[in-house]
């Protein structure tokens, strides 16, 4: 199975900050990496697919990069509504696996 | 507008069975892979199962293989998850999600809670 490791597990940031979350796969997954946002009590929503493609309807301040084993989700100019938990997920092979999540909290 | 509405969750004893449903609307259901993903209370996301658009292929996490069965009725735009031999560790919110292909979850339902407890 492919293990996905996110860092950090949590972070505190202020509105307007630039935030970076990293995700590492235990083996190469080429560009088969997706990012989700989950707010408390809500279902997750897709932000980024194929490592760097912005999902329709997702704000342009979100961007993704990387390939192989190392990936990054960047939030430019953090907004209040961005405080949430973020998950990476590999779609390279089954079993499909998620990272453990990164909780973005208000500083 | 895409809608996915799960139902069928509830309290069940260990060893029991439950059948979840996910009613879909707003898209061409039979052309999309469909998925079940779960989230234990206070924990992260865990993929459970995927079925192809026509239902010819299905995939399972090792943790549920042999106990859970995914199926779909394309005439009724409905996805199912038959869960047998339930264990306490199956307690979770179960989400259905559609995907443009196997592996990406581009729209999620609101989830249904399954609690396995005596």
3D architecture notes:
The complex is a heterodimer of chains A (107) and B (118). In chain A, strands 2, 4, 5, 6, 9, 10 and 11 form a 7-stranded mixed beta sheet that branches. In chain A, strands 1-3-8-7 form a 4-stranded antiparallel beta sheet, with no helix packed on it. In chain A, 0% of the residues lie in helices and 50% in strands. The N and C termini of chain A lie far apart (36 Å). With 107 residues, chain A is mostly beta strands. The mean pLDDT of chain A is 97. Chain A has no helices and 11 strands. In chain A, 35% of the residues are buried. Chain A is globular and about 35 Å long. With 118 residues, chain B is mainly beta. Helices cover 0% and strands 51% of the residues of chain B. Chain B has no helices and 11 strands. Chain B has strands at 3-7, 10-12, 18-25, 33-39, 45-51, 58-60, 68-73, 78-83, 92-99, 107-108, 112-116. In chain B, strands 2, 4, 5, 6, 9, 10 and 11 form a 7-stranded mixed beta sheet that branches. In chain B, strands 1-3-8-7 form a 4-stranded antiparallel beta sheet, with no helix packed on it. Chain B is globular. The model of chain B has no long low-confidence stretch (mean pLDDT 97). Chain A binds chain B through residues 32, 34, 36, 38, 42-46, 49, 55, 87, 89-92, 94-101, and chain B through 44-47, 50, 59, 61-62, 95, 101-111.
